[in-house]
Specification:
It is built from no helices and 20 strands. The protein is an all-beta fold.
């Protein structure tokens, strides 16, 4: 457990790479040049037989000059701001007793953003380059990027795709207006929306 987040304490600390191990609790924000929240694995509580650890929890935001990786089983109670790429692992696990969720309770901003199957974002997602969504992703607010690829069964609060869009089947976009490329050859809709 980290009681006060992982913050720079002296000059150049903001340029360090930060890796948070599986099933950790960080009470505060994390700043670094690269941030990794490792995938959760199966751990039992040492004090209670048969009880499993709940996964990694960050009670703050992630702020990185470079890339951010959010592993399966993580809950981030703040936004994600990256100067590089953001990757959130699939929330769908194949092993019993491993936390099967990735929840981000805030905005996600970065160069290229990839959200794996089942990821939930309770805020907008803004990519400067490409936004790629797996199957069953939920974004409460707008998804905004020049190039967007959406899997099957996603729920979005809105969509702005200016240059290129590819949409899978059975998706819901809950907005009165959406922005798509004017060029029909840049739109690939494979199913019902």
């Amino acid at each position: 457990e980290f009681g006060e987040g992982i913050l720079p304490r002296k000059g150049h600390d903001e340029k360090r790479e930060v890796t948070v191990a599986s099933c950790c609790l960080v009470n505060g924000h994390i700043f670094g040049s690269e941030i990794q929240l490792l995938d959760c694995d199966k751990h039992t509580l040492s004090t209670k037989a048969g009880e499993w650890l709940p996964g990694t929890q960050i009670r703050g935001g992630l702020n990185s000059f470079g890339d951010v990786y959010i592993g399966s089983g993580a809950v981030v109670e703040g936004g994600v701001l990256a100067g590089g790429d953001v990757v959130a692992a699939s929330a769908v696990t194949v092993e019993a007793h491993v936390p099967s969720r990735v929840i981000i309770q805030g905005a996600v901003c970065g160069e290229n953003i990839t959200l794996g199957d089942g990821v939930v974002v309770l805020g907008p997602v803004i990519a400067q380059g490409r936004l790629t969504l797996g199957n069953g992703v939920t974004i409460r607010d707008y998804a905004i990027a020049p190039r967007v690829e959406i899997g099957d069964g996603c729920l979005l609060g809105g969509l702005v795709a200016t240059n290129e869009i590819s949409i899978g089947d059975r998706n819901t976009i809950a907005a009165s207006r959406i922005v798509l490329p004017a060029d029909a050859s840049a739109r690939n809709v494979r199913g019902s929306v």
